[in-house]
Design a protein that fits this description.
With 752 residues, the protein is an all-alpha fold. 61% of the residues lie in helices and 3% in strands. It has 29 helices and 6 strands. A two-stranded antiparallel sheet has the order 1-6. It has a two-stranded antiparallel ribbon with strand order 2-5. The longest helix has 34 residues. The two termini are 26 Å apart. The relative contact order is 0.07.
């Protein structure tokens, strides 16, 4: 793919990932809100059943206030004696009789003039002027009583008045007292004539008044205390108890309880807008995080798209889990598979990306269920627990073990959060939900992994393990059509795996890339020396330019076949760079020779491999291991076993050639790592081509002895034993890096 095409592809992948997170996820949340967040209004039938996710007590303020007012009003006023009123009752009684006596006694005219008794009319007029509050009939009766009897009437009246004054008589009981006690008092008294009815009774009714008064401060305090002691009128719902059932008319208390818990819902449009804002924030933070922490993921469009799909799928699962919770118990909310999201992201993309899913995992829980803060915390904790379990997976059994351990941790997390945040009566439900979460995570991770890694061509551990299976169609074809190349690939895979492990690269990726690096040779296997068994070398009859193209094409063909079989791009890249841009030296030298030794007459670029330089540590190790294995094998075939010094010198020479040619310029391999890889490859080759003991047996043909005299050297395969050593393609120096020999008698096994 061209650079412009790759950039366009990356841009479209990023746009698709953003659309998934910022548009599709909010739509999923809004769809869930259609059934899960329909607004609940007071006085209307409930569109859904609402369960209390925590204990709630809702006070009926209006009813409570009415009850307190009733309690206050029911408190009797605090009454105290009014000494002034008591004295006034007696004194006014005395004043009435004093006034009567005063008007009936003639005024003193002075001197010797005898006093003149006022007429009845004058006496009555004088009494009326006193404003005693008595009716004229009573005044007339007072004037009619003889003065000798008036004293008796006064004495009785004052005595009764004093008795009434000593009693606590509130205002509303004055008349009742007079009605109940006055007739009794009058009945027991000896009064002349009808004075009881005409004088005493009306006089006492006139002067009688309340003898107690209400203490306003004490009364107010007592009533306030009574109001305070009145308990609040409230409704209480336990966690998991239905506040309102679907179809039930929503009462004021129920409406307030639902609103207090944040469960009153909103319109799907509001839920959509809220989700859009939240997921836009997640997308921005996630983009910055990936750009800073995982730049390789940031520039890999398919991984961004995969991350968007994982978040979208998780959103759907959260909405589904919430629907189940709404129909049963809030404890089941702990079934949200945040661990599955994290493990898939860690395995398919990168562990650092898996950790970053903690943000969308928690945010989505809160978007779908705003009151489920403990569940959001559970989601974040599940991510942190699950991702570290994925960092050392090297087999399918390791994957099963990781999902099992993660699943066992979820019930513990759920139990701890319920015990800390409550409600504790949902402990059993939460533990069961955590266990179910572990089962869902195991199924989701192990079930989705093969599909996703194949769909996105990702070099996950399990995908690479599948590719490492020697029964893969490409490897079977390579073995059937190019057995020599197949054997060479197996050896290079062993070298790569050890070297990658030594430098901290991915050993499984390096091993798999080595197994497939020469699959392009199956299209023209007999043009490569390692596959020329008993046949003439076809390059003898071809122009060097044509032979160079045939040799170069095994890289192009390999990339094409790997892409057709949907091998991960990382493996395809290793295939395309396993020769880098090295020169096919043998055919270049032949072309120069044909041009009379004029190097300028030969286009060097035509004789360079059309791949690219290694761009990863695994690819760089493959380039080095490939040429080293081929060269040492060619030397071993011609000389028998190889001493360590020869292997080291050969590896150093091949390494230096590629360093000088700039083949490691585009990868992030350090010089220290390169030397470590070199040492590991040398150790591996020494182990392969170690000296062997000659076992006794029947007479053998005459053979030469290796440099240390420990083993035999091959015969006909090394008939060109005068060659000092093999070059980077495993052929004698004259063969160049193309892997073919100019003469049939100098056929040396070549495994590239």
């Amino acid at each position: 793919m061209s650079t412009n095409g790759a950039v366009r592809s990356l841009v479209w992948h990023r746009i698709a990932a953003v659309l998934l997170v910022v548009v599709v996820v909010p739509l999923v949340v809004a769809i869930g809100a259609v059934a899960d967040e329909q607004p609940i209004r007071e006085g209307e039938p409930a569109p859904r059943t609402v369960f209390a996710d925590e204990a709630i007590r809702e006070v009926d303020e209006e009813a409570t206030e009415q009850a307190r007012q009733t309690a206050a009003q029911s408190v009797d006023p605090v009454e105290v004696f009014n000494p002034g009123a008591q004295a006034e009752i007696v004194s006014e009684t005395r004043q009435i009789f004093a006034a009567v006596r005063g008007v009936r006694e003639p005024p003193d005219a002075g001197g010797d003039v005898p006093p003149m008794t006022p007429s009845r009319a004058q006496q009555l007029e004088a009494l009326e002027q006193e404003q005693l509050g008595l009716e004229p009939e009573v005044l007339d009766a007072l004037l009619s009583v003889p003065l000798t009897q008036l004293a008796t009437v006064e004495q009785v009246t004052v005595a009764i008045a004093q008795g009434f004054a000593r009693q606590p008589v509130p205002e509303d009981e004055v008349q009742q007292l007079l009605a109940d006690q006055l007739p009794v008092e009058l009945a027991v008294q000896s009064l002349p004539g009808d004075t009881a009815e005409t004088i005493v009774d009306p006089v006492l009714r006139t002067v009688m008044r309340p003898t107690v008064v209400v203490d306003p401060d004490a009364t107010t305090a007592r009533r306030e205390r009574a109001a305070e002691e009145t308990e609040e009128l409230a409704s209480t719902w336990r966690p998991g108890q239905a506040i309102v059932r679907e179809g039930e008319i929503v009462g004021p208390m129920q409406a307030r309880a639902i609103e207090s818990l944040g469960l009153s819902g909103s319109s799907p449009a509001r839920a959509l807008l809220r989700a859009l804002a939240a997921m836009a924030m997640v997308a921005v933070i996630g983009g910055v995080y990936l750009h800073r922490m995982q730049p390789r993921v940031w520039v890999t469009g398919k991984k961004l798209l995969l991350l968007g799909l994982l978040v979208t799928a998780y959103a759907g699962l959260v909405v589904g889990a919430t629907a189940v919770t709404g129909a049963t118990s809030n404890g089941w909310a702990y079934v949200v598979p945040a661990g599955a999201l994290a493990m898939l992201a860690a395995l398919l993309i990168h562990p650092v990306v898996g950790i970053s899913t903690m943000l969308p995992a928690a945010v989505l829980v809160l978007l779908v269920e705003p009151s489920a803060a403990p569940v959001a915390l559970f989601a974040a904790a599940a991510v942190l627990v699950s991702v570290p379990l994925t960092t050392r997976i090297s087999s399918r059994s390791d994957l099963r073990s990781a999902t099992l351990r993660a699943g066992l941790s979820y019930p513990v997390l759920a139990a701890v959060l319920v015990l800390v945040f409550g409600p504790r009566d949902e402990l059993v439900t939460a533990v069961l939900a955590g266990a179910l979460n572990g089962l869902v995570t195991a199924i989701a991770v192990q079930g989705a992994m093969p599909f996703l890694e194949n769909l996105f061509r990702l070099p996950t551990v399990t995908a690479l393990l599948d590719l490492a299976d020697r029964n893969h169609p490409l490897l079977r074809e390579l073995e059937a059509k190019a057995l020599g190349s197949y054997n060479h690939s197996v050896m290079v895979a062993s070298l790569c795996e050890r070297a990658c492990r030594a430098i901290g690269a991915q050993p499984l990726l390096g091993s798999v890339a080595a197994l497939y690096h020469d699959i392009g040779k199956v299209r023209q296997p007999h043009f490569f020396i390692e596959n020329q068994q008993g046949i003439a070398n076809p390059h003898d009859d071809l122009e060097p330019e044509v032979s160079a193209v045939i040799i170069q094409n095994h890289v192009v063909d390999g990339v094409e076949m790997a892409t057709e079989y949907r091998l991960p791009p990382e493996v395809v890249a290793c295939i395309g760079s396993h020769h880098g841009t090295m020169l096919v030296s043998y055919f270049f030298d032949r072309a120069v020779e044909a041009a009379g030794g004029d190097h300028d007459a030969v286009d060097e670029e035509h004789f360079r491999y059309k791949g690219h330089k290694p761009r990863s540590k695994e690819a760089a190790v493959l380039l080095l291991a490939d040429c080293c294995e081929a060269a040492t094998r060619a030397m071993a075939m011609s000389r028998g076993t190889l001493p360590r010094d020869d292997i080291e010198s050969t590896v150093d020479r091949l390494l230096q050639e590629r360093v000088d040619d700039g083949q490691f310029e585009e990868c992030d391999l350090t010089f220290r790592e390169l030397m470590t890889a070199r040492d590991t490859i040398v150790e591996s080759l020494v182990g392969i081509y170690h000296p062997r003991i000659a076992y006794p047996g029947k007479p053998q043909p005459a053979t030469s002895v290796s440099s240390d005299g420990a083993g035999p050297v091959g015969d006909t395969e090394a008939s060109d034993g005068d060659a000092p050593g093999a070059n980077g393609d495993g052929a004698p120096p004259a063969a160049g890096s193309d892997g073919v020999l100019p003469e049939r008698e100098s056929r040396v096994e070549h495994t590239r």
